[in-house]
Write a structure and sequence with these properties.
By secondary structure, the protein is α+β, with helices and mostly antiparallel strands. 36% of the residues lie in helices and 19% in strands. Strands 19-16-18-17-21-22-20 form a 7-stranded antiparallel β-sheet, with helices on both faces. It starts with 6 loop residues before the first helix and ends in a 12-residue tail after the last helix. Bound molecules: flavin-adenine dinucleotide. Pfam families: FAD-oxidase_C, FAD_binding_4.
Length: 620
């Protein structure tokens, strides 16, 4: 791990990136042929009982060194993590000899409920439909810890009865009309990456046939307009596939959700998502200019002007009402996004701070005084989370590096007040169009940090902070093999409230775990993910050893609910990042709404979907 400022190293990388982009045709305008189909990651490449690619998983070798197999991630794959096992043994008390093996297949899959009138209507239209158990299982869940746990050790009471792959907007209209006519439930399916149990079938009182609408065959770019800087795409396009095509043309969608490899643009819109680079490019919804939305009463779209015109500021915005509807009001079939020029330069900065409090003061000044225009992303991890960041260190320890480390820690403690167990880590990402300005930006940020006791910890650690979230779901699944169970909760709150909220939520988790006989006490880390002038978004990651617990899932649910209640009580929002309400946060969501807001939402549902075809969840 490099802790000193590797500016020369960083400049070299920037040149590399710039060279690479020039080579791919930056500023060389090309027009895509309409209807260009994007590649699609098939379910064959994905695990059936865990997050992500089949060929990517953690394992311990004979010496107990952890590594991530596969070659999907430039920063993490095929690397050894020497500090991970000792840390896991200490915090989560995992024991390499005590394994909790997952079941090889799902024990029980109920037989499908078939509505023959519905089937006889859609089949002659050439619409692809499957009743295969494997397809139904793959489409019956997202990737929340509870869902993955059920796949590995339990069961789903209800799965979709069939999976349908519509191939056009018109086919979606046919399916929704038939579902309405013959009383069939529909659940739109994007990439299946939500964390909030949004895709699970309703269990009680739902006797109808339920079909999952996998949107990923609708993945064409319908038009790309260089003059207006906009792209219209079908909603099943995987965000990364689209971004890759756009980058070759010198554009970017900007926000960059970290589930980009699997999430569809429709799924991201349906959950009002956000991404790594939101500080510079805005949230997902800010990029949407237009969309087509199929409901049981017809298709909603803006028809009176060209799809790529600037937003209309007259009257209420219906599009905004539909964003975040999580598949409960209809199906998004097409989206028009505004494009950004791809920023060819990128730089990561990281700084250690003596405490979380000082790290927050640093970030607040960065956010409120707009220290640099091109701030793309920012993170701050607390003292507990920092240990995990260090666990992702790929350097092999030698006598010299260990000795240097001891000396450095001594120096830091004595002269910089940086103490292991108290210090935290901030990371900043800047994107730029002008290479000569990158060094200036870095200096400005470091100067602000130094005023709060910050010590420069280099490019590599900053880069690791941003990229490691991609590896975390793989680590979560791996740890289940060793009786360690973990989950995430996100919220947002004002600057003045952060520390009170963090303390209270941590306390609520610890107290609940203690009452449930969780031993040793849970691991809880807090991370600031996004900065706003008025506050931040926060993610809590918590986990515990469940070896001696009779009902790990029940305890996890209890901790989740108690923490959510405490978040609301402490003036946090019900959700922020990764976004969504789903079944997981439904009760807290309702609690956070005023009576008139609930009334409006109920009426919207009654108007657009009177027979509750879109039945995965009732957000109210
Ligand atoms: C490693 C990881 C990183 C993540 N990072 C981020 C992040 O940076 N930012 C973020 O916001 N989220 C993030 N998430 C959460 C998740 O990726 C998002 O919530 C995403 O929006 C889900 O998209 P999807 O296509 O996978 O949708 P799915 O999970 O398939 O579906 C989600 C919901 O949307 C509905 N839906 C899907 N497609 C449509 C459609 N076409 N029309 C109507 N409804 C539809 C479904 O019915 C369901 O209710 C992350 C998740 C993981 C696993």
């Amino acid at each position: 791990m490099s802790e000193e400022n590797p500016y020369s190293n960083a400049s070299r990388r920037l040149e590399n990136i710039a060279g690479h982009l020039n080579g791919t045709g930056y500023k060389e305008w090309r027009t895509l042929s309409p209807s260009q189909t994007l590649a699609v990651c098939t379910n064959r490449e994905r695990k059936w009982n865990g997050y992500g690619y089949k060929d990517t998983f953690f394992r311990f070798d004979d010496e107990g060194t952890a590594s991530l197999l596969g070659n999907r991630f430039e920063h993490f794959s095929s690397k050894e993590y020497h500090e991970l096992r000792p840390w896991l043994e200490q915090t989560l008390r995992i024991n390499l000899k005590t394994l909790c093996r997952a079941q090889p297949t799902m024990v029980e899959i109920h037989s499908p409920e078939v509505n023959h009138d519905f089937y006889d209507t859609i089949k002659p239209q050439g619409i692809i439909i499957s009743f295969a158990e494997q397809d139904r299982l793959l489409h019956g869940h997202g990737i929340s810890t509870i869902e993955i746990y059920k796949l590995r050790y339990g069961n789903f009471i209800r799965l979709p009865d069939a999976v349908i792959w519509p191939e056009s907007h018109e086919q979606v209209e046919i399916i929704v009309k038939a579902a309405q006519k013959f009383n069939v439930g529909c659940i739109p399916y994007g990439g299946g990456t939500n964390y909030v149990d949004a895709l699970e079938c309703p269990v009680e009182e739902e006797k109808r046939m339920i079909v999952s609408l996998d949107m990923r065959h609708m993945n064409r770019i319908l038009s790309l307009n260089n003059e207006n800087m906009s792209v219209t795409v079908e909603a099943g396009a995987i965000a990364k596939d689209l971004e890759m095509v756009l980058r070759k043309l010198g554009y970017s969608l900007g926000w960059n959700a970290e589930s980009i490899e699997f999430s569809t643009v429709g799924g991201l819109a349906a959950l009002r998502s956000s991404g790594l680079r939101r500080s510079m490019y805005g949230d997902f919804e800010n990029s949407i200019i237009n969309m087509k939305f199929v409901t049981p009463i017809g298709t909603i779209k803006q028809s009176s002007h060209s799809t790529s015109s600037p937003p209309i500021y007259s009257g209420p915005d219906i599009t905004n009402l539909l964003l975040g509807s999580e598949g409960t009001l209809g199906v998004i079939t097409e989206l028009t996004f505004k494009l950004h020029y791809l920023a060819p330069y990128r730089h990561y900065i990281s700084m250690y701070f003596p405490s979380f409090h000082q790290g927050l003061l640093f970030l607040r000044e960065i956010a409120q005084k707009k220290i640099v225009n091109n701030l793309s992303g920012a993170r701050l991890i607390d003292e507990t989370g920092l240990q995990l960041v260090h666990g992702f260190n790929t350097a092999t320890p030698t006598i010299t590096t260990v000795f240097k480390e001891v000396l450095k820690k001594y120096y830091w403690k004595k002269f910089k007040k940086l103490e292991t167990g108290k210090m935290c880590l901030a990371a900043i990402l800047i994107d730029g169009y002008d290479s000569s300005k990158m060094e200036v930006y870095e200096k400005r940020i470091l100067n602000v940090g130094e005023n709060y006791g910050g010590v420069n910890s280099g490019y590599d650690l900053g880069e690791r902070m941003f990229f490691m979230s991609q590896g975390l779901p793989y680590l979560r699944d791996f740890l289940m093999d060793y009786y360690a169970i973990s989950d995430y909760l996100d919220t947002s709150t004002s600057w003045s409230n952060i520390e009170t909220l963090v303390d209270k939520v941590k306390e609520a988790i610890v107290t609940t775990c203690r009452a449930q006989n969780v031993r040793p006490k849970p691991y809880i880390a807090v991370r600031v993910d996004h900065l706003y002038e008025t506050g931040v978004s926060l993610t809590f990651t918590y986990g515990f050893n469940c070896r001696n617990l009779a009902d790990p899932l029940g305890i996890l649910r209890r901790v989740d609910q108690v923490a959510l209640v405490e978040i609301l009580r402490s003036n946090g929002s019900v959700s922020h990042f990764p976004t969504g309400i789903g079944k997981r946060k439904k009760e807290s969501f309702i609690e956070s709404l005023s009576e008139p807001a609930i009334e409006i939402m109920k009426n919207v549902k009654k108007t657009l979907d009177p027979t509750n075809i879109f039945c995965s969840q009732n957000l109210l």
